[in-house]
Amino acid sequence: MDSFEGVVEFVTVAQTNGFSAAAKQLGCSTSHVSRQVSRLEARLGCALLARTTRLVSLTQSGTAYYEHCKDLVLGLQQANEQVSMQQFQLNGTLRVSGAGTFAEQFVAPALMEFALQHPDLTINMDFNSRMVNFVEDGIDFAIRYGKLTDSGLVARKLLDRPMMAVASPDYLKQHGIPKRPDHLKYHSCIISNNDHWSFEHNGIASNIRVDGRWRSNNAHCVVAACEQGLGIAYMPKSSFITSIERGKLTPVLEPYWRNDASSWIVYQNRRYLPMRARLAIDYLVQHFADWQE
To answer: How far apart are CA 112 and CA 290, in angstroms?
Structure first.
């Protein structure tokens, strides 16, 4: 039987479209991946990959070979992890991307509890609102909020998060209380992710374009600006609970708040996920099953 050496590297290059991305996913050097694939091609006597300075693509022979090999590699990975699961000692590094107050205040503590249950596991959590490249950045999964647009990713709902509009008592005393969403055009609004706010009333949805003096993609900064009287803010309820309890913010437009906004666990659309990622995702879904905003 021919050696299987280089098959895993070849399949990973085919799936990630590059040697560097494959090396990052496999946790080895780019030169090692390139060397292993070259040796495999030499044993087979044909080129599996067409290489240019910017692009790596499958040849005709490579496409046929990949179709045969991908399920073999998947089966090997799952078999290895099945044995590891019997020991139930997760190890390696779990890389998670999260953004916003919810990820900071609620998801991170939940993952800390998960880490305590698995002493050999390292968790790297990156709080960044930018769109991540799951392969190049080595991200296992991300926590995202709102409408998802990338159909190439798998999204698993974590929980629903109703919205809330608020303003400081001083702002409302000076500028008045809006009675309907269309009244926001007469107010200064604090903009976080976008300047189009969605509302719903009696089953009828409305989308209002807003403007204001303060913009920030940081929820803490939005809340602080709202407390200072810079305008009306509209974000998930959990962002404002503490400020409302302290009397620094007052809810407005309550009959029009959306209740269908959600937070999601998002990961690469692939059949194989590391055991540490699968178990962490299941843990988070169970952890937030009965959570109330």
So the answer is: 19
